[in-house]
Amino acid sequence: MENDGRRKFLGVCLAGATVAATAAVAYPVFRYLAPRSGQLSSGKISFTAGELPEGEAKFFEYAGSSAVLVKTKTGEMVALSAVCTHLGCIVQWIKEKQQFLCPCHGGLFATDGTVVGGPPPRPLAKIPITLTEGKITVG
Ligand code: FES
User: Could you give the count of Cα atoms lying within 13 Å of 46 in the half-sphere of its Cβ?
Assistant: First the structure.
C-alpha cells in the first residue's frame, strides 16, 4: 500500500517534469516560427533631426522588418527597407562609400536605394518620411 502511494507520487512528479521540459523546448520553437503579431501594421516612428549626423545611417524596426534612415552628405533624408531585394538579407551601411552592402551576395545600393552592383533585381523599397520642426516621421 505504501509503495502505491510512492509510485503515484513519482508518477505525478515525472509527468510534471515531462510537461515542463516539453514546454521549455516547444515555446522557443513556437516563438521563432510564429509571425510577429502586432508588428506588421505600418505605424509611424519619429526621430529627432539631430539624432542623425550627415553621412550616417540609423537602422530600426519598421512594420515587422528592418529599415534604415539615411542622412546623405548633402543633408537629404531617405528612409528605406533594409531588406535586400535579391534573397532578403539585411543590408549594411558602408559609411566610407556612402552605400549599402548586402553581405550575402555582394549587392550594392546607393543612398536612395537604387541598385549599383550585384544581383539584386530591384531597388530597396522607399518608406515615406515627413520632416516637421526638427522631427522626422517615418511611415
Ligand atoms: S541577398 Fe542580397 S545580394 Fe543576395
Answer: 6
pLDDT in tens, the chain (139 residues): 567 777 886 776 567 667 566 666 655 554 544 444 433 345 889 999 888 899 999 999 999 999 999 999 998 999 999 999 999 999 999 999 999 999 999 999 999 999 999 999 999 999 999 999 889 999 8
> Is the domain defined by 45-138 classed in CATH 2.102.10.10?
yes
Domain map (residue ranges) of the chain: 1-34, 45-138
Q: Which of 124, 87, 123 is nearest to 105 (CA)?
A: 87
Q: Which atom of ligand 1 is nearest to the CA of 87?
A: 1
Please say whether the beta carbons of 94 and 100 come within 8 A. Answer: yes
Nearest ligand 1 atom to the CA of 85 is 2
Residue nearest to atom 1 of ligand 1 (CA): 87
Number of neighbours of residue 118 by Cβ within 10 angstroms: 15
Q: Rg of the chain over CA atoms, in angstroms?
A: 24
- Quote the cell numbers at residue 18: 515531462
